[in-house]
Description:
Elements: H1 3-19, E1 21-22, H2 28-32, E2 38-39, H3 48-53, H4 62-125, H5 135-138
Antiparallel strand pairs: 1-2
Amino acid sequence: MTSRQQQERLRKAGRIRSFQYENPSPCDHCCERNKTCLIMPSGEGKCAECERRGRPCVSSSWVALDRAGDNLSSKIAEDEGRVERLLDELDEVRRRLVRNRKVQEQNNKKASDKWECLVRETAESGEPAQFEDFAATDFGFQLEGVPSPFQFGGFANFSGTETGVAGSS
């Protein structure tokens, strides 16, 4: 901004101040800064402070403020309703999560019991285990000290005499 424009603004602001005519409804800028809002007696143009700063001189009417308040109230109510719906949905997801964890825990217990039973039966029979159902190992379940049917070193050293591996004789 050129100093010429700035000097012109300051000249206009000084002229407005010289009339000492106080605005009965101060602009937003003067209200926020607790300044006296001085305007031309005709009520035209900007107030002295807004003219000096080169900013728009805006006076919010009561109707505009009421309308903005109503709009904000409806937006707040809408957002509060959305928050309530999301909290209800979150509660439902938490309930499902707790239920699914309990079912998973029961399933793991059954798999553990089945695996222990299979190991016990194999140890008592003395014969190689015939693994038909690998459900316990499908989930990475492993009992300590008991080899998994999936622990297989590969076919490089396979002689066909290993025991305990599915498909071996």
